[in-house]
Amino acid sequence: MIEAVGLTKSYGKTLAVDNLSFSVPTGRVTGFLGPNGAGKSTTMRMILGLDTPTGGSALIDGKRYRDLHQPLRTVGALLDAKWVHPNRSARAHLQWLARSNKLPAKRVDEVLEIVGLTAVAGKRAGGFSLGMSQRLGIAAALLGDPQVLLFDEPVNGLDPEGILWIRKFMHRLAEEGRTVFVSSHLLSEMALTAQELVVIGRGKLISQSSTEDFVAQATENTVLVRGPQLGHLRTALGQAGASVRDEGAGLVVSGMDCADIGELAARTQTVLHELSPQRGSLEEAFMQLTGDSVEYHTEIADAPTPATLVPAGK
Ligand SMILES: Nc1ncnc2c1ncn2[C@@H]1O[C@H](COP(=O)(O)OP(=O)(O)OP(=O)(O)O)[C@@H](O)[C@H]1O
């Protein structure tokens, strides 16, 4: 379990993390979301003892990172997949890490196997694709068989196969009872990967909840109704207290579920071509809840989409 209590970090006049409190539970994948500059990397660095808080604390299983006896046995992290000597082989890189952290040498082949790099273990890490480098970074994070894992943007730049592999892998780690804390800009991916969310904006906590609750609290559930003649149904829906708006060739109904709308359609002898619940997306919820905390708004007049908040290469 990871716990931040009143965590604060200022760089001169910039308050990067502002009195942030949250907890990351075991046995779940927890997504860490926030607009650019929200303070995610700073928070992760403080959890890992790479940055010193100006105030508050970040604890892993109740201890500060620097008080952990053998840190790699407690917490593993992937912050930068390219942090590898390019001329070292994958195996030599992991052997060096294992040796310098007093971890058993036999664990190197185990983690290579776990991440599927056994066949290329003797090859130069400098020639690895991004996907292979990510796997090597994850192997390094797993060396000490830690219960707590942090991943900063692990799917950045990966192809769909690599993204799917990481998603399944994180679920597997959580099912093994580990704490998995992962930051990402790819909201559609996070919607599939993260069961819990910690969302921050301008260094402050915006929300901590399950992914499902986060989306439900910020977006409206509606029902899309399509059919050749919807006039009678529209009137009946209004009389029954639902609110209805036209969208394209159909109606978007709120305040009534599919079953009740179907009953009403039967009573008004309305032919339906579609009757489908419309759930809000994580993107919509994110924009709704973090809108005020975006550091740099787009100049484009249209409503910003999450993609416009993401600098190229992120
Ligand atoms: N070493 C530093 N010195 C000065 N300011 C910093 C430093 N590191 C981060 N900041 C500032 O702190 C704020 C939070 O940055 P941080 O990188 O933690 O955000 P982030 O949520 O990880 O952003 P991104 O999604 O863009 O990576 C930003 O305003 C950033 O400019």
TrEMBL record:
This is ABC-2 type transport system ATP-binding protein. InterPro entries: AAA+_ATPase, ABC_transporter-like_ATP-bd, ABC_transporter-like_CS, P-loop_NTPase. It comes from Actinokineospora terrae. GO terms for molecular function: ATP binding; ATP hydrolysis activity. PROSITE patterns: ABC_TRANSPORTER_1 (PS00211), ABC_TRANSPORTER_2 (PS50893). The keyword GTP-binding does not apply. Residues 2-227 form the ABC transporter domain. Keywords: ATP-binding, Nucleotide-binding, Transport. Belongs to the ABC transporter superfamily.
